[in-house]
Design a protein that fits this description.
Layout: E1 12-15, E2 33-36, E3 40-42, E4 54-56, E5 81-85, E6 89-91, E7 100-103, E8 107-109, E9 114-115, E10 120-121, E11 127-131, E12 139-143, E13 151-159, E14 163-165, E15 180-185, E16 192-197, E17 201-206, E18 213-221
Parallel strand pairs: 1-2, 3-4, 5-7, 6-8
Antiparallel strand pairs: 9-10, 11-12, 13-18, 14-17, 15-18, 16-17
Length: about 260
């Protein structure tokens, strides 16, 4: 095995066999690009076996600066990140790391996105699972609500007033005719109704002799994009009849993955 100090590659670097079309052909060849048939190991070499085409671990040499350097893939000895990316990253398979992945731009995955050692898959219900805040040896799991409309909401407690102030940005953000209001009287029955709604307020009316005291929960549908089509004919999300670019599809291939 020959040991060289530095090796300069002016155009492209190829290790192994294969023709990476993405790196260009002829006049379109991308200068400074490289292809490795794999697998590759970057950083500490003590992987027990081949886990992926590219395996990353914290660097082991003392020359590497520990601080994060913008524009580089940085695995510093004292850096909290195993992989730090400024820009975009694209993965065709599984990403497996037992440390943090810090992405400053877009992260594009053609396969599944899994966390907690595979226990949470993004294409499943959107949830979180944490140690229970008040019961020892218990856990707490919540899941995100799902709806056939692109809804936003706000909630609060109204006391000694008969108007609910709408968020200022709702005027050009939601359809006014989509606004719905849930009211829960506090302390006594108050016969509260929604009298009217304009761009700034919700006006309430009560038949009770006592001042209004209630909780409120207000929903509305966003109008800053096309309306969601909840049901459509097709075999994959690519058949969606609307503008797919407006949506981040959770686990794009979840309906065709192998069981």
């Amino acid at each position: 095995m020959a040991k060289l100090p530095d090796v300069y590659v002016g155009k492209r670097l190829f290790v192994g066999q294969g023709s990476p079309i993405a790196l260009g052909i002829g006049p379109t060849e991308i200068r400074g690009s490289s292809y490795t048939e794999g697998p590759t190991i970057t950083g500490n070499p003590l992987f027990p076996n081949v886990w992926a085409g590219a395996m990353f671990a914290p660097v082991r040499n003392s020359e590497s600066p520990p601080a994060f350097i913008p524009g580089t893939l940085c695995m510093g000895v004292n850096n909290p990140y195993t992989i730090a990316v400024i820009g975009s990253a694209a993965f065709m398979g599984t990403v497996d790391t037992n440390r943090s992945v810090n992405v400053g731009g877009n992260l594009v995955a053609q396969g599944e996105v899994a966390s907690r050692c595979g226990l949470h898959v993004l294409s499943a219900k959107k949830n979180f699972d944490i140690p229970h805040p008040s019961k020892s040896n218990w856990r707490l799991r919540h899941t995100c609500p799902e709806a056939p409309t692109n809804d936003v909401y706000f909630r609060g407690h109204l006391k000694n007033k008969n108007t609910i102030d709408l968020p200022s940005y709702w005027k050009k953000f939601v359809y006014r005719d989509s606004i719905t209001v849930n009211l829960t009287p506090v302390g006594a029955h108050q016969d509260i109704i929604v009298q009217r709604i304009d761009d700034e307020k919700i006006y309430l009316q009560s038949k009770s002799a006592i001042p209004i005291n209630c909780y409120y929960h207000v929903f509305a549908e966003r109008k800053d994009g096309e309306r969601l089509i909840p049901e459509y004919e097709g075999r994959t999300p690519a058949d969606y009849p609307g503008d797919n670019s407006q949506y981040s599809i959770s686990g794009y291939h979840y309906d065709i993955k192998e069981k």
